[in-house]
Design brief:
Layout: H1 12-25, E1 29-30, H2 47-52, E2 73-76, H3 78-84, H4 91-94, E3 101-102, E4 118-119, E5 122-123, E6 128-131, E7 134-135, E8 155-161, E9 178-183, E10 190-199, E11 203-212, E12 214-215, E13 222-232, E14 241-255, E15 258-271, H5 279-285, E16 305-321, E17 324-342, E18 371-392, E19 395-416, E20 422-423, E21 440-462, E22 465-484, E23 492-512, E24 515-526, E25 546-558, E26 562-582, E27 585-608, E28 611-624, E29 637-647, E30 650-659, E31 662-665, E32 669-672, E33 675-685, E34 695-703, E35 711-717, E36 731-735, E37 740-748
Length: 749
């Protein structure tokens, strides 16, 4: 069979734009003394970006609060990212030291899609992730494919907003917070930067970046293009990854009050995505077992492959006109995924055990044939975000809207890998089902429409006190045309719309120039997942969007030697939907009402002589109202403690992260003990070595210094499970990835 894979799926116009913008600007670039990238947008109205601009205290700290934030927020700056995170790190690795955050990356930093990012116990898919204010997500369940989009070399900073935000915060999962990535900006002087990195697990990363500098003939145009390639065998056996990425950003000043930005990210990925190992597999093959090299087995790495191509583009305008401030972004992003997997990777090898009612002895072609599945998940999103503000009376009025349309093809079919990937019709066709339902688990053509509009007013009550009140209207629509619907194997042609009004109110008080406090009341929501339509008659499904009521308060203090942020929160959650993973496929269920509450604090103390101490701590409670059982994958506490050094040409850090007790499944099943891992980094900058070589740096990053390898995550169950307790399935676990290191060399010309 042939599979289209490569940049051919990406619009050719993007490639042309890259060439025209870069080649055309090279001869006109001018050198400027100011070479620092500008990481702020002067006219931006994005509420998260505005607070992210207020960086105070030591920039090398793992994270810090903001004096202008109106909800708990931690900012990870560019300096920390480039000096302390592994070169292959994704945004999930970048935020792992921030309060109340827990991430699961069992193949090594950035070497597989992150499986378990949690903020205050809210799982991936229950909070927003954005780039430059634009939400991106899988339309099925709003999760995020961390290895399929942006790389650390192109990220300016990352902000973790732990709350639903105000009325102007857009997204389909507002109650869990926002992970906000701000892309790096072009430098003001022309130059090349090269990067070479190698390390554990045969990991290699090569990169080059070209900055045009300010092009005076074009009114001060600035642009940069970075190209990276990453390959690794991974910590887990036969869990390989090959990745190529290109990122382009162009900033075009129009006049003193208007600026246009264009950005494009292209990514191509091939990986063997691990799903975990059973206790028996770990005992037999080692704790880092993922796949084998036996082509007669469902666990053969060649039968468990993902090929993914993505693109992400936007054009934005920031302008002040006749007293109005306008911030608009028109964007598109796409995800093309072809994948193959053995039917029961965690089951009995070589040919697996099928579910009751399936063809005996594996497949219809032979008792020792290898049964498997092929999936397709392709989607494209097109949307626009508009924010407008104007001074009005004793304050400022803000309003705007977000529209997003996604089209999505989802297909999953049974195949015989031994018989040239032929269809394996081992499924029972229900009455009224199409014949192809005998070998197709799902075939869906989906559309998803998101429409949001907001209005809010910021009242400057006195010089140092702001009160903000607003409301957001949400309209969310799913359309499905499914010849074979997942779960029922029946045909379905259906449309359903959900609406919600979400009020918000916050107060921000500047107690002193270096001390602020805030309080917030806000409603949050999570739009219904696609699984609500996996029923024979969805019109009888009365599922409402999951909603929260958030109340929180906090303070930030910034001194010459000490920065401190602290907050308390309580969140009442109605109708939480959770999921089990069975043979790498999610199965959703209702947890009912849940109450979250907690206390968070973080701070940095500058000792002197380049030495700083960083620490944070979080107490988290997340319990179901009906029986007080713990919400799965929610640690009861997190903490971090680090020693930082930054003086002269040397920068170094040692930071330990502690993650408390949590449960892998509902009903307090699979208790997982707390653990701590320590990371370290050291960098030496040589400075200019010649008139051409402006800057040279060598760095070493290390993870899990103590080489701990305890089980720390339950990734669901193997095939053969039953919905009532999953008693027949083999649990699939991951252990902490072993000790690893990376050596990096970079030079600027």
């Amino acid at each position: 069979m042939s599979t289209s894979y490569g940049l051919s799926r990406l619009p050719r116009v993007q490639t042309a734009l890259i060439c025209i913008l870069l080649v055309g600007s090279i001869p006109r670039a001018r050198a400027d003394a100011a070479d620092d990238a500008d990481q702020t947008r002067t006219h931006s109205l994005d509420p998260v970006l505005v607070t992210a601009q207020a960086l105070h205290g030591p920039q090398s700290a793992p994270s810090q609060g903001s004096l202008v934030a109106t909800q708990p927020q931690s900012i990870v700056g560019a300096e920390f990212i480039q000096n302390n995170d592994a070169p292959a790190a994704n945004y999930t690795d970048i935020i792992k030291f921030t309060p109340s955050v827990w991430t699961v990356d069992p193949n090594g930093p950035g070497l597989m899609e992150n499986l378990g990012t949690s903020i205050r116990g809210f799982q991936d898919g229950q909070f927003n992730v954005t780039l430059d204010g634009i939400p991106w997500f899988d339309p099925n369940d709003f999760t995020h494919h961390s290895t399929s989009y942006f790389m650390a070399q192109d990220i300016g900073n990352v902000v973790v907003d732990r709350g639903p935000g105000n009325a102007g915060t857009f997204g389909n999962a507002t109650f869990g917070g926002t992970v906000y990535m701000q892309s790096a900006d072009p430098k003001k002087t022309m130059g090349f930067t090269t990067l070479l990195s190698f390390g554990s697990f045969n990991t290699r990363l090569y990169g080059v970046r070209f900055d045009t500098g300010e092009v005076s003939e074009w009114g001060g145009t600035r642009a940069f293009l970075s190209i990276k390639t990453l390959s690794s065998d991974g910590y887990l056996t036969n869990a390989n990854l090959d990745r190529s990425n290109a990122f382009l950003k162009v900033i075009q000043p129009v006049n003193d009050s208007t600026e246009i930005t264009f950005a494009s990210n292209l990514n191509k990925l091939k990986q063997n995505p691990p799903i975990g190992a059973t206790p028996n597999q770990m005992a037999t093959f080692g704790v880092n077992y993922a796949y084998n090299q036996d082509p007669t087995s469902q666990g053969y790495y060649g039968f468990n492959v993902d090929k993914i191509t993505t693109d992400f583009e936007y054009i934005g305008i920031n302008s002040k006109l006749a007293g109005w401030t306008i911030d608009n972004k028109l964007y598109t992003d796409a995800y093309f995924h072809d994948g193959w997997n053995g039917l029961d990777v965690g089951g009995v090898l070589p040919h697996g055990v099928m579910d009751a009612g399936d063809t005996p002895n594996g497949t219809i072609y032979g008792a020792n044939d290898v049964p498997g599945q092929q999936l397709t998940n392709n989607y494209r999103s097109v949307g626009d975000i508009l924010r407008v503000s104007r001074k009005l009376g004793p304050g400022e009025v803000q309003f705007g809207g977000w529209f997003d349309h996604q089209s999505n093809l989802r297909e999953l079919q049974e195949e015989d890998f031994t018989n040239n990937y032929a269809f394996n019709p081992d499924l029972t066709v229900p009455p009224g089902g199409l014949p192809e339902a005998s070998y197709i688990d799902r075939l869906q053509h989906n559309q998803l429409f998101t429409r949001q509009a907001f209005l809010q007013y910021i009242w400057h009550v006195i010089q140092d006190l702001d009160l903000t009140g607003g409301v957001k209207y949400v309209n969310f629509e799913r359309d499905i045309v499914s010849p074979v619907n997942q779960g029922t194997l029946l045909q379905l042609d259906y449309r359903q719309t959900w609406t919600r009004d979400l009020p918000s109110f916050d107060a921000h008080y500047k107690l002193a120039d270096n001390w602020s406090a805030y309080a917030q009341y806000s409603k949050g929501f999570l739009a219904p997942n696609l699984n609500v339509l996996y029923v024979p008659t969805p019109s009888g499904n009365t599922v409402n969007p999951q909603g929260t009521t958030n109340v929180q308060a906090g303070t930030t203090w910034v001194g010459q030697a000490l920065t401190v942020s602290a907050d308390v929160y309580t969140i009442n959650f109605s109708n939480e939907i959770a999921s089990h993973t069975v043979d790498n496929q999610k199965q959703f269920y209702n947890l009912g009402a849940v109450k979250y509450k907690g206390v968070e604090a973080e701070g940095t103390y500058v000792v002197g002589a380049g030495v700083s101490v960083y620490g944070n701590a979080s107490y988290i409670s997340a319990r179901q109202t009906v029986d007080q059982s713990w919400v799965p994958d929610t640690p009861n506490r997190t903490a971090a403690l680090g020693l930082l050094y930054n003086q002269g040409p040397i920068q170094a850090s040692v930071i330990e992260k502690y993650v408390g007790v949590r449960y892998g499944d509902s009903g307090d099943a699979y208790r997982l003990g707390g653990y701590g891992t320590a990371d370290a980094a050291i960098n030496y900058t040589f400075g200019p070595l010649s008139s051409a070589l402006k800057d040279t740096k060598i760095g070493v990053t290390m993870q899990n210094l103590a080489d701990r390898k305890s089980i720390y995550f339950l990734n669901g169950y193997s095939n053969g499970s039953t919905p009532s307790g999953y008693v027949n399935g083999n649990p699939l676990f991951f252990t902490l990835p072993g000790r690893s290191f990376q050596v990096s060399l970079s030079a600027s010309f």
